[in-house]
Amino acid sequence: MAVGKHSQAAEEKTTTRGQSDVNRRLKYISLAVLVVQNASLILSIRYVRTLPGDRFFTTSAVVMAEILKVLTCLLIILLQKKFSVKETVSFLVDSIVFQYKDTLKLAVPSLIYTLQNNLQYIAISNLPAATFQVTYQLKILTTALFSVLMLRKSLSRVQWVSLLLLFGGVAIVQVQQEGNKEASVSDSSNQNYTVGLVAVVISCMSSGFAGVYFEKILKGSSASVWLRNVQLGVFGTVLGLLGMWWNDGAAIAERGFLFGYTGMVWCVIFNQAFGGLLVAVVVKYADNILKGFATSFSIIVSTVMSIYLFGFHVDLMFTAGAGLVIGAVYMYSLPKAASGSSSPSSSSSSSAAAAPGTDRGAEMEAFLPKAQGGVESPPSAVHITD
């Protein structure tokens, strides 16, 4: 009897250890995916936008990414319905058409995400990749502020200090870049640092607002991440087409929708379309510390790669500013100190810590399945983008 109990305990211990090893492996895979997606998208956009020759229309690239994303999510939903076209169509009509009030709620965040995707192209086309990566972390600040204002969440002292450090680090980088601006403009006359900076600041503000608004209107929703992406993608495609017609309509009518598309441009579009969905899948295996570390590490990767790919110059001021930003991102993602009596305040700030992220896919974390059998728990906090 005692031998049987001992054997059962040994088996349970082995199973627990094996599960722990799997979870640790999944965390490392998640870290690698988050870092690669974060850094590669920015570097690849910068690369294709600075190449000589015919340039593709960024508005068409945004639309193409949305179309690919919608088609991918529809395919996954079809797979979940065991390739039953009738059941899939019935599900989509019921979820999107009959529940139109729920669908219409996504029009505002979809508009903001479409604007944000276009602004990112503008920003990266006019800013060094490393500078964009550092400055874009201001989305953490805007997300936190919108969380406090719109959701009445509270932040811990450590988080407030990290936000101040974040702002200070970005400011130092901008001062450093201001000194190098004249040299950069002379090197590339078709780049405008001020335009890039304005684009990234507006993108950060829109990212923060969209994430918090998304959480506010969809709290308690049980819809899957794939359905949400279809709803967002439908609006995004329509709005993207309107923006494309408004901005580049005449030129696209003359040269064609796919003008300037090369193999590398398609890589950027696929990264933008599928990268966010991939992050949405792996992000549930990554805690806040891991996501903060991934963001920090992707800044380092972008900076190092920018030196080799674009001849980016790193001086003491940029290093100091980027170091402050990296430290601030990591500090913001740290868990709260454990205490016997946790207050509502600390609970709210914990939710706020989960808010910042990389793109729309990470913002969908709240809608990922949390239990078996397709049952999903209600969203607690948004985020991570576009």
Structural class by SSE content: mainly alpha
Q: What about the largest sheet?
A: none
**Bulk shape:** globular
| Mean pLDDT metric | 80
What's the total number of strands? 0
Rg computed from alpha carbons, rounded to a whole number of angstroms: 22 Å
Helices and strands, in N-to-C order?
Answer: HHHHHHHHHHHHHHH
**Number of alpha- plus pi-helical segments:** 15
Low-confidence stretches: 182-186, 339-386
Strand content: under 5%
For the termini, the CA-CA separation is 59 Å
Which helices and strands occur, and which strands form pairs?
Elements: H1 2-50, H2 58-80, H3 85-98, H4 100-104, H5 107-126, H6 129-135, H7 138-151, H8 157-187, H9 193-218, H10 225-255, H11 263-282, H12 288-310, H13 316-332, H14 344-353, H15 360-363
Helix pairs in contact: 1-11, 1-12, 2-10, 2-11, 5-9, 5-10, 6-12, 7-9, 8-13, 12-13
Description:
It is a single chain. This protein has helices at 2-50, 58-80, 85-98, 100-104, 107-126, 129-135, 138-151, 157-187, 193-218, 225-255, 263-282, 288-310, 316-332, 344-353, 360-363. The chain is globular and about 65 Å long. The protein has 15 helices and no strands. The termini are far apart. Helix 1 runs parallel beside helix 12 and helix 5 (107-126) packs antiparallel against helix 9. By secondary structure, the protein is mostly helical.
